[in-house]
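Batch manifest, entry 17 of 40.
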Amino acid sequence: MNELFLKRMENILKDDYPLLLKSYEQLPRKSLQLNTFKISEQVWEDKKLFKIKKIDTIKDAYYFAEESLGNHPYHQAGLFYIQEPSAMLPPLSIPIQDDFKILDLCAAPGGKTHILAKQVPNGYVLANEFNYKRAKKLLSNIERLGLNNVMVSSMSVLKLQEQYQHYFDVVLVDAPCSGEGMFRKDKEAIKNWSLDKVKQMSNLQKDLLKKASTLVKTDGYLIYSTCTFSKEENEEVVESLLKDNNFVLVEVNKNIQNLSRDGLNNLTKTRRCYPFIFGEGQFIAVFKKVQKCEPFINSNELQNLDKLEENNLKKILDDNMKKQPFILKKYKGNIVALPHDWEVPNLALLSCGVKLGDYNYKHFVFHHQLAKAYGNLFYNTYNLSLNDDNLVKYLKGEEIKDKVPDGYGVVMVDNYPLGFYKASQGRLKNYYPKGLRK
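Output type: structure tokens
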């Protein structure tokens, strides 16, 4: 490793520095977050498919011993999200009410969005990622998990400021950083490290946090996190925001205090995770907004369907689904299914709730998102076990021959939705998206 980095860590950790060096000789532990929208902890543990161990200090989290679970059909069905343990902590650092409106500002690849969404079944998460390529990966993960209470966008914080002011109950800024906390996992991060990069990131983070702070409502929370150790990117960024006197630091939840150390510079309410304690590297600071201000949203672009279109779609849904626990709205020409009514300003969204589908030559074609979020409510399902050859065929995008009722249906693995098919005379046309096929 870079000698300058090691010297800096020795100055930070002092007597604990040998523990850090020893941790670098060990392999990082692999872990996952369970998607409890789809499967309960009890059912997951009863399956006994994998070598797993509950992480007692984190809700819905498990260590696993398998080499990889990313290609497992249960992963494709969205039953879990593979995530490093300490990365799960920022969205669990405060008590979150189930109707909160949350902005995840730097959301890709989506692990923290997933944890936030599980906590707000009566609210929603706006998951934003400025980098468009990473935003597409974020969208893919949100679709795979079947999250119905998430919007996905790709825009700058300045664009968000034009649409929202003092609006969100929680804003999470998991900021871009020098990645020092990932050195045990990511050799490229070691190669790319330099003191100049640390200082560059610090300036970016201060600007980003300042702008993000205007999006938090009075008495709302601003969570700042990084996966690095440097004071320049952590405590010094926190100090830069506290100078405005619009925010105060608050304690994180007790279980996270027990998994971490006090921050530096006498900022004992901030938290530092180290690989010799838990997970990899993580820094967390939680601010509460004390500035008095009125919430503002630029406009509401959601529209009601016209009566004829609503009646047509209701008939299509009634013919295919047992029930529809959502409302239908239009957003910029797209028909979307929302668990409850939202306010959505004029944003360039990649996704808004669950896309219902599109008309194709007067025929309505269901979107993959609908299968992932509500597939278990369809009348026609084609349920496959893990060892069924037709499961492999479906995930490869191949046609399946079997006697099933004609029309739309959902392919399931052990009763968990994978995607759509359309059956005709014993042939199941494969609607699994091409980009996901194995």
